[in-house]
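Q&A log
Question type: sequence-to-structure
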Amino acid sequence: MRSITILSIGVLFVFYQFFTGNSSVADEWSLEEQTLKYEWGLEKQTQKNEWGLEEQITKHDKSDSIILHYDGKTWGCIYNGYSVWLNNIYGFSDNDIFAVGEHGVILHFDGKSWIKQESQVTSRLNKIWGSSHNNIYISGDYGTIIHYNGKEWKRYKMRTSNWFSNIWGFDEKYIFIVGALGEILHYDGKTWKEQNSGTINWLYGIGGNSKNNIYAVGDYGTILHYDGREWKISALNTNKRLTSVCVTDSNNVFVAGADGLILHYDGINWIRQRSGTNNWLRRIWGINNNTIFAVGDHGTILHYDGTKWNKQKSSTNYLLLGIWGNKKDNVYVVGIKSDSYYDHLLDVSSRKSGN
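Response status: OK
Response body:
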């Protein structure tokens, strides 16, 4: 499996070199007009594939993916996916939630059932963000960016085959994507343009609370800050991979990463917080300074109450990769069985974490 992981890195790097060799033609991209052929190998959307909550099983140790729900007291499994590997989840209300993953899979929850949508792509989808139900973006492998207008998904025609790990936006005309080798793209409502990140380290997380207070994090303790004009690197005393960032305000920035690492920025200093776990943390998300969650390996779910981090019982050992909620007692998490399919590419350098 290690060799497969290394091979994956090599393939991505070759594609990157091939498609970005001429930087003068790789700074703008636009939306494809043509309709792409639907190539996902499962049933067609016309069959209205539905997974109703009434059909879910209680035990999920044999399913490839799960979706957990938190009601403010306990976590429970509400979906089991077979031959479906989910990486991320995002929504707008209790009856309007999207989950994305491997082979271009997109599931939509309407309050009753999870329904598969036609994504127009077969590559893995890593992260989803939207300003409304009619304006949603997904980033993925091999330069994949797709957009949803409330009716259908369309793919942007990109001049890069780079790996896009994460996407975040302030509004529909201010969106960022980060990925392999320090790549950062910015969308102004018309075109995607490449920005100078100042690093070649892989970036895995991005988030902010305004147009001039945005953070991106990645390999070897990389933290970048965007002030609305340029990206600057913050110096940290760590070499660990940083996977995710949550910005509640300018004086409260939380970063999660390898080996249970959680960092907090108070507007002046970065301070390591006690997480109580050595498990890798894959995503950190919050509503306010007193309601923040971090999820990761071996079913790890942590909750921050404004004072300290506490472990919560997930009743699973799955690799938890994505989290979203609209209030403190309505939170969703997606995860995959770590040995169900492959060594997840998000772990491409899991074994090279440092101090």
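Response note: Residues 1-58, 341-355 have pLDDT under 50 and may be disordered.
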